[in-house]
Design goal:
The structure is a homotetramer of 363-residue chains.
Chain A (H helix, E strand, L loop, with lengths): L30 E9 L11 E9 L10 E9 L7 H7 L1 E2 L3 E5 L3 H15 L13 E5 L14 H9 L17 E2 L2 E2 L1 E11 L2 E11 L14 H4 L13 E7 L5 H17 L10 E7 L13 E7 L5 H20 L4 E2 L5 E2 L4 H10 L4
Parallel strand pairs in A: 5-6, 11-12
Antiparallel strand pairs in A: 1-2, 2-5, 3-4, 3-12, 7-8, 9-10, 10-11, 14-15
Chain lengths: 363, 363, 363, 363
């Protein structure tokens, strides 16, 4: 019996219409792939397991990212986390690598995997052309996973990329395998919006790697579900993080994408978070419009068609709502996981949650 | 018949206890003063009125700010607004002036007023000692006010400072006189929290100058009040801003205060905002702890006692909730104002609002 | 007997060719105007004088800036100074006002002057359209000027704008009237470069308001002139600032202009500065390319033609050299000024300086 | 016959006295270790060589960095480069890992090496305590090195740490093995200063990984050596980067260290750089004062003794000069290296350089 997504269960997140898959892949060309690592049970034996981790990759378009970077940026609502490539993303306003997500200490392996993958496709990179600086972010899954065992390896990036497609599995998959959200099982969640701006329709798609918050904080559509649920789930000692990746085909440059990325933090707030101290709340945003070659042939001035800022509010609204929905999806799809030292994180009890929403005038 | 504050009417904003006045002045030493400018009615005659504007000052402590700066910082969730002194605040992590709030094009007058006020108290400033760079921020009240008339003058700063005290009037007073919040009358609102951190009690106090949002967005304690209210209030064409000033006696430096300031944006989100394009959503934060002389006599290494970051989450929680409460207070206390060209902004209908909250399981 | 500009005297600043006027006005459309305030002598009587101050305005193009903003940004190498409008410039990547320079505590007056000037030209501003947030920066001229007297008034902005043209007076004029640079008379200096990028020629023009440094630091074309000069000039107790305004017709957006602005700090370094603590070293940069209407009629996606970053190095080189030349021009053109309390700042002794350069293999 | 350091050859870099070793290790407790990888000659065979690369580690103190972080920060003059851990460094104002330098695509391996090294020393990390986010930066050595071969491996971090000590080899060692500076052989260079501030003596030590610039730009003590040298060295097509690590025992927090880091860019300018587009010019700065435990036992408010900003100018001066000297040291000590595809980068011709300096009134 599969767990429903939040919207399937009737939960509402604002009035902006969703895309056909209600996933980040509703943005034309975006693909997502997971490599899930799950092995062993019981007591922690460092290097052996239990393993509850993985890799998730987001491919902004079907071409090679190194040779065809997208406009991109990031915003750290709370910088208690890792993001390789951050300086270059900010300097040039572009993302020129597959975006990799994994557990904190798996970042090096994923970075190396992306380097190898990129070198394979770009024979001049690192000789005549630029070297490769990948974009990788992370959350800490050590409550369920043998994090010290460094089980993520570079080849898992290749597996995740090979598996990439339009259908985005949610919950305890890929990088989300061992993640915990508001003391329930979280991990991967996604959602999308269709936004009309002066007659043009743009898509926004969001994927989260949710690993943050305390149960008492959890809020769904304004109802303080976390406080009201009669749950006996254990409380993690330290609070994890959330990485939010935002894709859009709206023609925005890095400055404007940073405005979008900041609004994702407002969507996070709607689910109850206060961005606790240890929570690396990092947003990455890119646009698939105005993509140019890294080495454009004999062209030195390139044309960008950019939405005027005055028309961005509808995108902001969509971002806030869509972020909240992606997070709640990660909870709705997150099944109970038992992991390291038998630490167990229960899936959000969906029936009780829906009853609480109903009792508060929702649904 | 006076309008109640939100909490008096039973609205809840989280579980953190409030201070005795539930105002920014619960932070020891902080004072707030208003100078309200209200003159004329009917059709706009530039330079004559109608005038619906004013000045609000926040005094971080009882001493002179220039000679005894407080640790301080700012964060621009959306930088569509003005904040004089921003660069110096960031460079030195201090606020060394009275903080002034007013309408956008009144900033110059308020800045000049603070300069004059500071010069009077510091005879060496601008001769042997540093010149004065004031800290002033703003929202746009031109929907109700003859903004082009530039009615705010430097002397109004002196009046606001003379009126400063512990009791903070809310709603359409001071800088808030002509402000509009979610298409209802907004302006000044305040709230406070007492936070226990490892046996020590710290205060956080927040004051907002609310002038942002569209009615449909307004959310109170998770209930989408704005959509549900049967209100016929007019919709402003462009969306204003919100300035949030956060005071605390928790021993935090500028880096940590910036972390606090970012969380105020999450409280703003709880009231429904998505930080629309034209909304200058600016947070200013200061701590009254670790205050040193500007020119310490023969001391070149000074001691700061600073809270460890690991203990900041309780302050973050308090900031989020307290910001939301201050905003809703600005609405609860905002009485209907008719202003420029008979533009009229209604006060939030409190009874209907409370009924909606009740119908959704609140109160 | 007029003092020569540095290049007229044979001093070299790199190999990039200069524009026809070797001034910021070599960038098509840019104009500069000064209003110089000079009154009284001898002992300081606050409010009476001596007055040694003024206003300098930079007009990025011939149209109204509010209705036709230019791409722009700023960078604070050292944020010990004031820059009104900074948040909005950063948020939107544009400068939408005349740029005003003056003394520190004259900022409010210049801001008000620009507001009034802009309102006159934009009858809908502050009613149907946005209010006005001007861009004003400053240095502290209190060593020579009765700074506490607040002698700069809004009308001086109008005078400076009325006087604006292509010919840029340098030295002790406009905002530079009372400024001190490396303990010599500084103030206004300008320079320009013509940069060829892949067959296209772009102009960069720079104007400085120089008020920074200690004599011992002064370096010209690598020669430590300040240490070697047998000068007996007095040493100011605290170190002033430098504002650098960079104009270009190269098609750059705010992100790229920020890269340019950072390089101006490297040019500052070539003249010997280490950006001392009290020196507000602020760079403002704008491009006259890709100018759009503030309220474009029925167009919501606008086209920018932007230089690729890979081709920016030549502009960086030009910026570094041109900044250094502008600073040295402010010294070469700065005649001795006696001011407040008979404080006297000597002009750089040009003959001795040139002899030192010659003795070190220059000229 | 060993090449002299710049100062041994009589070159001067300002008047601030140097430390006993004129190295970053003059800051008490700081250690530096190299692991140099050099293998093969001639034509590139990817994965085999030629190998001209390595790892350099900077240990801010003798304790474990994870459990005893130092105050730290970074500044990207030009963010065209990689710096893992950047977000966390900025959020908390601390550096809590060994600092690793290597070639661009070796970053992942060095990051993994630091993770492993840290886990070994901290048995609770990644279980009860925080996971590890290392601080690694890089330059691109692909002109001389088989960069695509990914020859740097995690164990090289252990070797570099094992080799760490007070004596800092310069030139083509460690991470500097394959680096190129102003088209001459660069790599590792170091220098230090002793700064007296109001009777207290503080040390500043700097180490650079120099890989930037074009020959024509090279300037030493103000003399345009690069233009004047009769050198026939080849010109790299793209311009590398420079990483500058600044250590001090002056009691500074992250905000103040960022001020220091910015001044290193001014020292870079003195050697002729304009921070070309492709040059990742990254500064990392830390202070060994005010070190606290990561998990202080039952203490929640910690004491920092911090230098007042008003006294920082002497440190700024020292930073500028010291950076320039460290860069020139990397050139003076850089011997000719032949590498990948017989690409050859000559060492700076020292005799000719000194003659040029003498001819321009130096030495």
């Amino acid at each position: 019996m599969s767990r429903p997504r939040a919207r399937e269960a009737g939960v509402r997140f604002g009035d902006v219409p969703i895309g056909s898959k209600n996933a980040i892949t509703d943005v034309e060309g975006v693909k997502v792939g997971h490599c899930t690592l799950r092995k062993g049970d019981g007591k922690l034996i460092q290097g052996e397991g239990p393993v509850r981790t993985g890799v998730t990759v987001i491919l902004p378009h079907g071409d090679d990212l190194y040779s065809r970077p997208v406009k991109g940026t990031y915003f750290a609502l709370n910088g208690c986390g890792g993001l390789t490539g951050a300086l270059q993303v900010e300097e040039f306003g572009k993302i020129d690598s597959v975006i990799g997500l994994t557990n904190t200490m798996g970042m090096a392996s994923v970075a190396e995997g992306i380097v190898k993958y990129t070198l394979e496709r770009n024979p001049l990179a690192g000789i005549e052309h630029d070297t490769v600086i990948p974009v990788v972010s992370e959350c800490d899954d050590s409550y369920l996973n043998d994090a010290r065992g460094l089980h993520v390896r570079p080849e898992h990036v290749f597996e995740a990329i090979a598996a990439a497609g339009d259908n985005v599995s949610e919950g305890a998959v890929g990088a989300g395998t061992g993640m915990v959200c508001y003391d329930f099982k979280g991990g991967i969640g996604t959602s999308s919006r269709k936004v009309e701006v002066q007659g043009e329709e743009y898509s926004i798609g969001i994927i989260v790697l949710s690993n943050h918050g305390e149960r008492e904080e959890l809020t769904i559509d304004g109802v303080h579900v976390g406080k009201l649920l009669d749950a006996s789930n254990p409380h993690r000692k330290e609070n994890g993080s959330i990485v939010t990746v935002i894709a859009t085909d709206a023609p925005l440059d890095a400055r404007q994408l940073r405005r979008i990325a900041k609004r994702a933090g407002m969507g996070l707030a709607l689910t109850g978070s206060c961005a606790r101290n240890g929570s690396g709340d990092i947003m990455i945003a890119f646009s698939t419009a105005n993509v140019h070659d890294r080495y454009p042939e004999k062209r030195f001035v390139l044309t960008d068609n950019l939405l005027v800022d005055n028309e961005m509010s509808a995108l902001f609204r969509a971002t806030v709502d869509c972020t909240a929905e992606a997070i709640v999806n990660s909870l709705f799809k997150g099944e109970t996981v038992r992991g390291r030292d038998d630490n167990t994180v229960p899936g959000l009890p969906i029936d009780e949650t829906l009853q609480l929403l109903k009792a508060h005038g929702r649904l």
